[in-house]
Design goal:
single chain, Endo/exonu/phosph_ase_sf, 6-stranded mixed β-sheet, alpha+beta, Deoxyribonuclease I, Chain A, ExoIII-like, globular, magnesium, AP_endonuc_1, 25% helix, hydrolase
């Protein structure tokens, strides 16, 4: 079995002080994908940077204090890559991948966007390039007899049951018709499988992000924007997939919660 977790840490230095370090020490995950690290290598907390038993690939953004992703694995990767061959985005700290025996695992932080601004244009450019990469990644892996798992903060709620207040967000970034259609293409045309939704087809959520404003967490008024997207062969082996929601607002160490999946994949 292999256990994979993904979580947007909302700044690794702050998260380490609030409970991320303890979570990493206690997790049973074999691979952990992190997003929004927001730190250069020399800025990482020592208790994170020097963790025993983990191999780490860090991909900070060229713009300091922004974005940044990482992939942590208990087994040494056979190959690592930062970026996906994009002139515009490979230095933005939004994508890193590793190869383990028979499996490629990637960490993604897709731009959040903002309607009517350059940020939304940037998001759309990223989506267009990234979909091509996801298609070629899956095809190449199939030719090599490998499976693929792309984890992270996709910043899109795909279906109405992926966010609590969907009616009020129909014109907002993250739930725009064109963004949702892009996710549908990823699933239906490119052929990835949303493993959490696959195991919980009729459940509202489970949500993975809650605003710090108001009582969003206490009311479970959240969004499901953190996904583990798997190649069909790997998805068919998924025995469990769940959100590690904090027991209380005070125990949160990020505005996101880890999402974890268990696969019957043998190295």
């Amino acid at each position: 079995m292999i256990v994979v977790s993904t979580v947007n840490v909302n700044g690794i230095r702050a998260a380490a002080k609030k409970g991320l370090t303890e979570w990493l020490a206690g997790t049973k995950a074999d691979v952990v994908c992190l997003q929004e690290v927001r730190a250069e290598a020399d800025q990482l907390p020592s208790e994170i940077k020097d963790m025993e038993g983990w191999h780490a690939v860090w991909a900070p953004a060229a713009a300091k204090g922004r974005a940044g992703v990482a992939v942590l694995s208990r087994r040494a990767p056979e190959r690592t890559a930062i970026g996906f061959g994009s002139t515009e985005f490979d230095g933005s700290g939004r994508y890193a991948e590793i190869d383990l025996p028979g499996l490629t695992v990637a960490s993604l932080y897709l731009p959040s966007g903002e309607v009517g601004t350059e940020r939304q244009d940037e998001k759309e450019r990223f989506m267009a390039e990234f979909l091509v990469h996801l298609d070629s990644l899956k095809r190449r892996a199939a030719e090599e007899g490998r499976e693929v798992l792309v984890c992270g903060d996709w910043n899109i709620a795909h279906r109405e049951d992926d966010l609590k207040n969907w009616r009020a967000n129909r014109k907002n970034a993250g739930f725009l018709p064109e963004e949702r259609a892009w996710m549908t293409r990823l699933l239906d045309d490119v052929g990835y499988v949303d493993v959490v939704r696959d195991l919980h087809p009729d459940q509202a959520g489970p949500y993975t992000w809650w605003s710090y404003r108001g009582r969003a967490f206490d009311n479970d008024s959240g969004w499901r924007i953190d996904y583990l997207m798997a190649s069909p062969g790997l998805a068919a082996t998924c025995a469990d997939a769940y959100v590690e929601r904090a027991a209380s607002h005070a125990e949160r160490w990020s505005d996101h919660a880890p999402v974890t999946a268990v696969f019957d994949h043998r190295f």
